[in-house]
């Protein structure tokens, strides 16, 4: 019993000092342990109103994400350089203008889909590229940086 008392006292003192040091900390414990992924997004446009974003998204089968007070239209969200180059070539062939944007995503469904399916885009033809891209973008669950609009 005498050997356990110093450990218990150490835990109590450590807890006290931990609470004392972090009581004014400006972070959430969920943010500390939240999974994130740095990606390259193919942004087609940014709109102040939802109607303009929907029009562009419907035209190119893209998705709309709300980012603060604007609606961003994304065609694709990828991580691997080979797939990014292939997607750039595909969009150039179709005459679609885009802006490459480096972002960090925290949506678990989107991260999981990118990790699972992106490598299949390397070897596939254009129809595989488009199909897998739709599969990845449709896996967005709306939790993370943005709120899904469509």
Describe this structure in words.
The protein is of the alpha+beta class and 150 residues long. It has one domain: 2-Layer Sandwich (Alpha-Beta Plaits), CATH 3.30.70. It has 7 helices and 5 strands; from the N terminus they run H-H-E-H-E-E-H-E-H-H-H-E. It has a 5-stranded antiparallel beta sheet with strand order 4-1-3-2-5. Helix 5 packs antiparallel against helix 7. The longest helix is centred in the first third of the chain and has 18 residues. The protein is elongated and about 75 Å long. 23% of the residues are buried. The C terminus is likely disordered.
Helix content: 40-55%
For the secondary structure, the number of strands is 5
SS content category: alpha+beta
For the termini, the CA-CA separation is: 62 Å
H and E order: HHEHEEHEHHHE
Number of domains: 1
Largest sheet: spatial strand order: 4-1-3-2-5
Question: Looking at the chains present, what oligomeric state does this protein adopt?
Answer: single chain
Give the integer mean of the pLDDT values. Answer: 84
Q: What form results from the Cα inertia axes?
A: elongated
Range of strand content: 15-25%
Biggest sheet descriptor: 5 strands, antiparallel
CATH architecture tag: 2-Layer Sandwich
Q: Would you tell me which CATH topology applies?
A: Alpha-Beta Plaits
Give the secondary structure arrangement, pairings included.
Blueprint: H1 5-22, H2 29-33, E1 37-47, H3 50-60, E2 63-67, E3 70-78, H4 81-93, E4 99-105, H5 108-117, H6 120-123, H7 126-138, E5 147-148
Helix pairs in contact: 5-7
